[in-house]
């Protein structure tokens, strides 16, 4: 007798095992399809090279960004190259500009050119990124650099000026800062000196005589040049400061003593690093009482501060009042002391730059008073004073 129930159970079990076997046989196939889909959806972008990492401001150079999108069969919908800048020391990145790269049809290696002055307008460090759909590349770096200069003297207030006084010192430096070993410095004429030939900054000391020269900074193959006009002193402006007699009132001697403030010109540079001297040749004269007067030759060293100022105390000799007495009458009288001005050049020689300066002494017969003056670019008198004990 046929057992229908047993046959049904056997068929059900057979069907179950058949389905289980089919599932096991197709497992690897499904896994392969899933993995293949994942590979197809995974893509990367990398910046491989930037041809010119450092570009000089104003040079109009072009740098080529090379990037790769993988895999090759990936087809991006849009590809963008963006540039970010760092405006300050805390590296706050700000978006500068971006461009859609339209020639990317599929994965592969591509290039894009960035030009200094147009795409990269300022002297700063830039970060370059390439993005496609939801992927973004690693950071690429481009630096547009410039040379700046600043005088050591705070006076005149324009410390970026390129007209400088003989001997004046200034700092030349690279912005933004880049590795020291990449920068070299040259002085095109050798008029003046550089503190060093490499590094991010250098101190330039102008020559001690008038000249023109250029300082050139070189980073890799790019250069920035700055021209300087070095000028010598050409005059002296004089202002009254105060009278400074050292004597008590009386009627025995005559003399005068006044302090003058002097400013070496031109005033749009500084001469604080110059050695000056008065090269007084000596003078003789005959007093009204027929006695001889003598001013011996001598040199008087002096200098100025950052704003070209010095003070000069002009004092006559302390002479007997009888010197201005002629045949029993006090008379007016004057004589000049010549004070030619010189400065020391690079070779240690003294160069005349203002030969006509004089320091007159005047005496007035009516009240037996005296005064001194300082005559330079302009003439300034002290006050009448005396006579003295």
Can you describe this structure in just a few lines?
This protein is mostly beta strands and 389 residues long. It has three domains: 44-143, Immunoglobulin-like, CATH 2.60.40; 152-231, Immunoglobulins (Immunoglobulin-like, Sandwich), CATH 2.60.40; 235-388, no CATH class. It has one helix spanning 4-41; strands spanning 44-50, 54-56, 62-70, 79-85, 94-100, 108-115, 124-132, 135-136, 140-151, 163-165, 169-175, 183-187, 193-194, 201-205, 211-219, 222-231, 235-243, 249-254, 257-265, 276-280, 283-286, 292-295, 298-302, 309-315, 319-320, 325-326, 329-330, 333-335, 341-344, 350-354, 361-364, 369-375, 379-381.
Please explain how this structure is put together.
The chain has 389 residues and is mainly β. It has three domains: 44-143, Immunoglobulin-like (Sandwich); 152-231, Immunoglobulin-like, CATH 2.60.40; 235-388, no CATH class. It contains one helix and 33 strands. The strands form nine sheets. Strands 2, 4, 5, 7, 8, 9, 11, 13 and 14 form a nine-stranded mixed beta sheet that branches. A four-stranded mixed beta sheet has the order 10-16-15-12, with no helix packed on it. Strands 23-20-29-30 form a four-stranded antiparallel beta sheet, with no helix packed on it. Strand 29 (341-344) and strand 30 form a beta hairpin. The longest helix has 38 residues, at 4-41. The radius of gyration is 43 Å and the shape is rod-shaped. The protein starts with a helix and ends in an 8-residue tail after the last strand.
């Amino acid at each position: 007798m046929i057992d229908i129930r047993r046959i049904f159970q056997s068929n059900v079990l057979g069907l179950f095992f058949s389905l289980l076997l089919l599932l096991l046989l197709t497992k690897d196939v499904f896994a392969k399809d899933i993995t293949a889909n994942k590979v197809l959806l995974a893509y990367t972008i990398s910046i491989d090279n930037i041809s010119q990492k450092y570009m000089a401001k104003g040079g109009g150079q072009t740098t080529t960004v090379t990037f790769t999108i993988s895999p090759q069969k990936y087809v991006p919908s849009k590809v963008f190259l963006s540039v970010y800048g760092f405006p300050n020391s805390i590296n706050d990145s700000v978006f500068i500009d971006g461009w859609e790269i339209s020639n990317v049809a599929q994965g592969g290696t591509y290039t894009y050119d960035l030009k200094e002055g147009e795409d990269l307008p300022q002297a700063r460090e830039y970060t370059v990124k390439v993005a496609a759909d939801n992927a973004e590349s690693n950071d690429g770096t481009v630096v547009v650099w410039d040379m700046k200069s600043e005088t050591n003297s705070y006076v005149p207030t324009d410390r970026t000026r390129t007209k400088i006084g003989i001997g004046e010192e200034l700092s030349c430096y690279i912005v933004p800062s880049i590795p020291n070993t990449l920068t070299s410095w040259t002085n095109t004429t050798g008029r003046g000196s550089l503190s060093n030939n490499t590094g991010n900054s250098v101190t330039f000391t102008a020559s001690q005589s008038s000249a023109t020269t250029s300082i050139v900074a070189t980073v890799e193959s790019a250069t920035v040049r700055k021209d300087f006009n070095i000028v010598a002193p050409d005059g002296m402006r004089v202002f009254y400061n105060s009278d400074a007699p050292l004597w008590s009132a009386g009627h025995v001697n005559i003399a005068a003593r006044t302090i003058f403030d002097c400013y070496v010109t031109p005033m749009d540079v500084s001469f604080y690093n110059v050695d000056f001297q008065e090269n007084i040749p000596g003078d003789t004269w005959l007093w009204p009482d027929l006695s001889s007067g003598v001013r011996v030759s001598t040199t008087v060293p002096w200098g100025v501060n950052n704003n070209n100022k010095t003070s000069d105390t002009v004092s006559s000799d302390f002479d007997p009042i009888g010197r201005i007495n002629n045949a029993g009458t006090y008379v007016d009288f004057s004589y000049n002391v010549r004070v030619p001005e010189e400065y020391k050049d690079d070779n240690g020689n003294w160069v005349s730059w203002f030969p006509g300066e004089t320091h007159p002494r005047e005496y007035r017969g009516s009240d037996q008073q005296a005064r001194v003056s300082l005559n330079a670019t302009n003439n300034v008198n002290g006050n009448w004073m005396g006579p003295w004990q």
